[in-house]
Amino acid sequence: MRPRIASLVPSATETLVALGLGPCLVARTGFCIHPAEAVAAVPKVGGTKDVNLAKLKALAPTHVIVNVDENRRETAEALRAFVPEVIVTHPRRPEDNLVLFEQLRTAFAGEPGVTERAAALAAEFRTALARCREVAQPRENVLYLIWHEPWMTVARDTYISMLLAEGGWLTWPDVSGGEQGAGRYPALRGDEVWLHRIDRVLLSSEPYRFGTGHLSDAQALCPRARVQLVDGELLSWWGSRGAAGLDYLRELTRSA
To answer: Do 14 and 239 form a contact (C-beta atoms < 8 A)?
Structure first.
């Protein structure tokens, strides 16, 4: 019997389609928007944090993909009451994409072409990582902002920070957020001493959509920094977008 897959993680949904598993998708969140043509007809079951469990149960998934950062622990626990297999993902650094590809390959190896596509994604990622590491970049202190009012950023043990480190960009504050929880995305007071040592402020396009109107506010936060808007999907989505994220980072650092 073909798997019936529900994905509650945007990055995972895109990766499942890249593995050829789009026809097996029976549910997604409203944030699972890529690739648009492949997911348009897949039923939505709420958001990543507010999943409609009753609607999801009615769709009878055999597999549900969740993520430690994106979804709530209680959601995952509730799913186990009616889903045969709950697949928990948690890429924390770029290399973890290789673990993810193997995790999904193992789960769905019975579907035609999945093994071959997983190998192709892994090869593409390894090549992109090697390209990114070709030239050592001068280290810069970076503030990556994901929210406004309050300002929120990323801890150093998040996927975003680990990715930026591949380009020589050291994120601040100097904190680790642990395995899960709010500590991974700390809020700022705005008067931290280290803000005056920031070389570059990156304003992400998601989850908060920063625009040109926020540039002056961010500049006031870090007076000596260069402030720029960046593509948050490329710098935070893992899985099949991981290679493109590394190439995007490489271009950003080369044009610095």
So the answer is: yes
List the domains of the chain with CATH numbers.
1-90 (3.40.50.1980), 140-254 (3.40.50.1980)
> What's the whole-model pTM score?
0.93
Could you give the count of Cα atoms lying within 13 Å of 228 in the half-sphere of its Cβ? 10
Residue 238's nearest CA partner among 128, 114, 105, 92 is: 92
Residue 32's CB is within 10 A of a number of other CB atoms, namely 25
pLDDT in tens, 144-189: 999 999 999 999 999 999 999 999 999 999 999 877 777 899 999 9
Helices (H), the chain: 10-18, 36-39, 53-58, 73-79, 96-107, 114-132, 159-165, 215-221, 232-236, 242-254
